[in-house]
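pasting for the record
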Amino acid sequence: MQHRRLLVALVLAAGLASCRRTPVLQPAPSHRQASAAELAIYRVLTESTYVRSTGRPIAVVETSLDSACASADCPPLERRWGIESPWWAGVAGSEQATAANAALLKQAAVTIDLHAIADGHRDIIAVSTRQLPLTGSTEGMWGDFQYYYQGAAGVLRFSPIGFSPSGKEAIVFARWECGPACGHTVVTALRADSASSWRIADMLLLSSKKQPAAAVRAE
């Protein structure tokens, strides 16, 4: 009996000791709302580049791009997003550009919620990934999408945004899709004119969809 009581006492003591241990820190949340500065940048890119060039509303996916790549020979993320070198150093200076590139990569696994991008902006339509045309959609399917979404010229998807230490420069990757053989990917450097006003300082085209050769010959 005495042996059993001693065993119970030891178990209770161990339990109490574990309760007094420093709690394990939980990892930072991987999902957050877009800040006012981020929304301002996403809107500048959408309106000044795509709304202006097409003259039509633009659909923007309300969650940031997934950085995953299913391809077996997938290149590093920094190459896919065009930030493997500070190519826009002329805008911000080499140290600022390098730091902003690193800040963008650091957020690669974070999902940014930017559903508020359409608030007060009639030519921007926030859509969920469930509403997008599927990979391999035909011209007709894209036409249906445009019909149901106010004649949207296409769909934009954005990465998170990397800010320089000064907070006056930013870098962001974007994917534009407007049909089976229409679209491109770009990386854009921006500079703040004020706390709430951003302008495009430089842009680099990374890839562009092209029509199949047979379709080009047919034309």
